[in-house]
TrEMBL record:
Residues covered by region (Disordered): 33-109
Encoding gene (name): bhlhe23
Name of this chain's protein: BHLH domain-containing protein
Annotated Gene3D superfamilies: Helix-loop-helix DNA-binding domain
Top-rank taxon: Eukaryota
Biased composition (Polar residues): 52-62
The BHLH domain, residue ranges: 103-157
Coiled-coil positions: none
Major location category of this protein: nucleus
One GO BP: axon development
Keywords, sorted A to Z: Nucleus, Transcription, Transcription regulation
Annotated localization: Nucleus
GO CC entries: nucleus
Annotated Basic and acidic residues bias: 76-103
Length: 225
DNA sequence: TAGGCCATCTGGTCCT
DNA sequence: AGGACCAGATGGCCTA
């Protein structure tokens, strides 16, 4: 782990996460929210895909699933124009390769693109279940911030569970078995960990102020204090 | 304008 | 052999 990551890790300390969690309660834990059907495509067409959409139009292939084979026909020049591709910096560039290698390379590129998109989808899923302010005024968590926040969230959940177990054990001491354990103290489930039923999300600025530790994690905050 | 974040391409390595 | 995974390089976009 490099120094930058360590700083980020400190920035997303357990205390900070506890604060966030207690502040936002369960409302921030919209499991699956915003990650289902109907959400706009997050990946604008790459030059390759852009080209393909034109190609498929020309070639009478209507709206089928995007496969790696589809990408085999994409136009190198269009990619070079708008995707930062530069033959000068890539001496072994695609255009100079035989058609067979070129087609193989394109298929590999398409697979890699899909793989990264899957990875990003998974990160979006993670963002959806960790407590931070999901609002239009708050920029999406960066990848590294998502991972670090998720890690601390897991640690916090484990800690909360352990404390809850201790509490239940303590309450059961000297009490008759007949008295039922309140559901709010159930050792499992969100109710035990999130007794707060927060409804409205606080602004990012409030969140940042509450956390007390302005950090690089909250650079996404666009709210004015 | 510098720095952060990101998408993409690419070649290498490992696995099935 | 083909696919998955990875890390480096590069350029675009956005923000302070």
């Amino acid at each position: 782990m490099n120094a930058r990551d360590e700083n980020l890790l400190k920035a997303i300390s357990n205390d900070t996460l506890l604060d966030l969690t207690q502040r936002y309660g369960q409302s921030a834990l919209s499991f699956g929210a915003g990650h289902g059907a109907g959400s706009p495509a997050r990946y604008p067409l790459t030059p390759a895909a852009d080209f393909l959409s034109n190609q498929t139009g020309k070639s009478n292939e209507s709206g089928g699933e995007h496969t790696s084979d589809d990408d085999d026909g994409f136009d190198l020049d269009s990619r070079k124009r708008s995707s930062g591709f530069d033959d000068d910096k890539h001496p072994g560039a695609l255009a100079k390769k035989p058609k067979e290698q070129r087609s193989l390379r394109l298929s590999i590129n398409a697979r890699e693109r899909r793989r990264m998109h899957d990875l990003n989808d998974a990160l979006d899923g993670l963002r959806a279940v960790i407590p931070y302010a999901h609002s239009p005024s708050v920029r999406k968590l960066s990848k590294i911030a998502t991972l670090l926040l998720a890690k601390n969230y897991i640690l916090m959940q484990a800690q909360a569970l352990e404390e809850m177990r201790r509490l239940v054990a303590y309450l059961n001491q000297g009490q008759t078995i007949s008295s039922p354990i309140p559901t709010a103290l159930a050792p499992f489930g969100q109710a035990a960990v999130y007794p707060f039923s927060g409804t409205a999300l606080a602004t990012c600025a409030e969140k940042c102020a509450y956390s007390g530790t302005p950090s690089s994690l909250f650079k996404h905050c666009n709210d004015k204090p």
